[in-house]
Amino acid sequence: MKIVLFTFLMMTSFFGFSQMTIVGSTDPQVVIQNGLIGNPNFPATNFNLSSGNNFGSENGIGTFTYTGSLFPLEQGVVLATGDVDLIAGPNTSQVSTGSFDWLGDPQLDASFGTTSWNASLLEFDFVANVEMISLDFLLASEDYTGTFECTFSDAFAVYITNLSTGVTENIAVVPGTNTPISITTVNGGVSQVCPPMNSQYFERYNYLVNFAPSIPAEQSPIDLNGQTQVFTLVGDLEIGSPYSIKIVAADAIDSALDSALFVRNDSFGAFPVMDQNPEDIAIVDLDDNGIETFDLTQSEALMLGSIDTTMYSFLFQYHTSQSDAELGINPIANPQTYINTSALETIYVSMENAYTGTRITNSFRITINPDLLSLEDQQIHEITLYPNPINDLLFIESPQKRIKGIVVYNMNGQLLLSTSVNNEETISVDFSNWDHGMYLIELISDSGTVFKKVLK
Fold first, then answer.
1. Disulfide-capable partner of 408 in 79, 200, 205, 417 (CB 3.0 to 4.6 Å)?
2. 182, 206, 21: which is closest to 109 by C-alpha?
């Protein structure tokens, strides 16, 4: 099972340029329930919005739509640190609105060690009935010009608070770090002033430069100077606990030069996690003709586990290659009546949230000869990982020393560790330098790969 950081490739052609449409709104139902969540069954309550209109200034909250090829999000919610009606492109003017009457956010100030102004935020409560939630977004700003990206950390945060314990976490951090995402922590750098910071997550400048990816200003769908790639944030939850979530964007130090957070519509919801791995399927070829009919869907209940399917909708598709499964293309047309093409075959399954579009993959094998699922082949599925949750060290017991390699991913899909194993029965993995949260462990043997999830 692999999870990838969702970054959308931008087309280099400028044909088919289309204008973005932004509609300001102060209606929590429109912005949060319809725009952000989408799923009418998601248990959200206590909706609240706050922006400049609460302080006698401009409104910075609205919804957006875009149909061209130069912006990776088609529709969603926008939180701006100025007048949201001025954010749509092209990038032909300086957007610098708001005032010092429009206050910032104290929680954001504490996170970034600065004074913020012109905060736009949305918040609501919900009860966790899944292990993980996710959210897709990108950050854009007028500060992506000159030396501003070196010093002005216009920023945002996604605070998730467990209302039972009072513990709050900002999940909007650079993947694999504790660094909050901001203009100064994700940028293209300025020659002889500041180096690029986490530039692998910076998408482009929306005006032509010769040192980083860029497009002509007149072609930009937004009137802001630069933007990050699309991130997928993932937060761990305790099932049954009540939570509040606050998404906030604000200017830092002063109220000049606006920034905006674009959140993909319907992207807030349950992150797909397979409760159990799909099982291999063996059917004896009694007539010895080399083919049998397989129902590839028979492990779906195992993979869903305790997920409430009246509240969350997940789509399963089956593929003959890992790449097709990860991209969600070329699914097997009739997975309940699939005819094998070889005596031993690997099938790749994708599990996708029907509302958010977030997807994970896994694999299993089908065979017409159970002997091909040898003892060696099966033992990789019987390995033991402990303790779970992890303190600092994870131990992996490998029967018959079958494990040849170990790969560790965080839930943003970032590769943290890839190492080979040489004839070891007990293997240890050091988690001491990694944050608390869920991790995916890929275990590789000569005969296959299996994925397991662990919690630190």
1. 417
2. 182
For residue 149, the surrounding DSSP H or E stretch is: helix 148-151
Whole-model pTM? 0.68
Tokens of 365: 């094998």
Q: What is the pLDDT of residues 262-285, one digit of tens each?
A: 998 877 766 666 767 888 898 888
**Dihedral of the CA atoms 253, 258, 262, 263 (nearest 10)?**
40
CA distance 418 to 422: 14
Architecture of domain 379-456 in this structure:
Sandwich (2.60)
Q: Where in the chain is the domain with CATH 2.60.40.3080?
A: 379-456
**CATH code assigned to 272-373:** 2.60.40
What is the per-residue DSSP string for 354-393?
Answer: TTT--EEEEEEEEES-GGGS-HHHHHGGG-EEESSS-SSE
Residue 76, class by beta-carbon neighbours within 10 Å (0-12 exposed, 13-18 middle, 19+ buried)? buried
The two beta strands, 405-410 and 359-367, are unpaired
